[in-house]
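Now for a chain:

_____
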Amino acid sequence: MNYFKKILRFAVPYRKYGFLNIFFNILYALFSALSFAALIPMLDVLFKPGEKVLEEPVYEGFSSLKDYLQDYINYRVTAYSGDDDMKGLVLVIGLVLVLFLLKNVFNYLAMYFITFLRNGVLKDVRNKMYEKIVNLPISYFSEKRKGDVIARITSDVLEIQHSFLSILELIVREPLTILFTILIMFGISTKLTVFVFVFIPIAGMIISRIGKSLKKQSDKVQKEQGEFLSIVEETLGGLRVVKAFNAESKFNKIFKKSTNRFFKFSNLLLNRQNLASPTGEFLGILVIGVLLWFGGKMVLVDKTLDPSSFIAYMGLAYNILTPAKSISKASYGVRKGNAAAERVLEVLESENPIADNKNAINKTDFTKNITIKDVSFKYEDDYVLENFNLDVKKGHTVALVGQSGSGKSTIANLVTRFYDVNEGEISIDSTNIKNITKKSLRGLMGLVTQDSILFNDTVKNNIGLGKEDATDDEIMAAAQVANAHDFIMELPNGYDTNIGDSGNKLSGGQKQRLSIARAVLKNPPIMILDEATSALDTESERLVQDALEKMMQNRTSIVIAHRLSTIQNADSIVVLSKGKIVEQGTHDELMKSNKGYKKLVEMQSLG
């Protein structure tokens, strides 16, 4: 239940619907009990037509309340019907029908209002989860499978929503139905009701024992659901590779293994859950059977209970069975929901290590330099950078080159604060980037990556991503700088053309030019280019390189280069090896030094 207390805070904005639900549930529970109690006068009219109450009864205290109410209703029926018994029967049937109608109207209204609370909680939990997912650092998702995160925001949240209804029934409706019913049962026969209570705890113990392992089974089901959603997500992302390597059968086997485990866990869970209903019903009928024997003895032998009261009593006793079954089902729902809530709260309560400091400033300009001082960083166990130092002056272009794994992209990740340094500090204009808000820090930077990350939307919306209020003219101007305007105009709907999932309707060069246009429109003073041309053919590279050169004019740029021909005009070229600087200088200086950089250039020239 601890997890549900945390989830309940999401119900606070919808508490008025909760109170209305409780109010109508109270009325439902009351009328549910009264509708069965009203059967007594109807049965009296049928079975005791000669016994009429001709004088209005006198109320003599709470102990005789049941007899008073029964005599009063009989008196009213007699006064209305006179000598016509059918008239009295119609009146009593009408009373019973009105009570059952009101009971069901209140039931509908209770369900009507709880719907707003349930769906409101569902909406808010999902929104909060999405907000958290977007804010969590990139390192969080390198440890988690995407499919598992998707399962948590979809099926787990839905499971919590279903459990909410069960909990409110558990707290209000069903217990009150049982309470009101038992009060009326005590009013009819205290002796018989006390006898019933001997059996109810035994039945409750048996039912609760069945459900103890439900949370564990439910947790397995939800984890496995995350597993096969991950497989689907990875398959769709790498479908070309799967098909190119004829790996369909391999992935089918992996997916089938996961769904077979899901099948097994689900069967265990549902069969254990399904056991609750027949067990509860049989135990209930067993209680009814014992009641028939004991109550029948009171009617036929002891003559301490009249037949009409006993029949109504049996109806009331059966009326307890439905809420009792609902409570047992709801308790299972709570256990399942508790497992789902645990998984959802694990995401919601994950601490973001890359958070803004309390006194972080909003930095809106860049005036001097970016300084990387004595920085050491590791993703896991081994350091990727050690005691790294670099100074990037305003207006300069610094290129980072080196073999794969030398730490080039790590520098881009640290400057943009996708990761935090382990040691040392990175400063902009002498202010540690940890003391600058993430939003304003990233507002100073534009990023163009090797993999063009585009979204399933129009060209216009993809370019305008970094500037919400961008005009059509600004978007077009950015596209022209990026050498993208001409090919965009050739698309079926120009700037309003949808480019498909990840921009797959476009070529590699076209996608990259859209990424550049997006960065140009943002117009940041600092530009970070992470191997922006490495995946392109020669013609596309020329167009993209031209676009990059236009974009880098009058800007400070950190360029991570794979193709060394693209960075020969850089103000400074830094050669990295195993996280350390081995050479630094202009292209001409490094060529003259006749070291590692010259060898790299010659190797690419020969290639």
In short: Residues 2-348 form a domain with the ABC transporter transmembrane region fold fold (CATH 1.20.1560.10). Strands lie at 369-378, 383-393, 397-402, 423-428, 431-432, 445-448, 526-530, 556-560, 572-577, 580-585. The two ends are 65 Å apart (CA to CA).
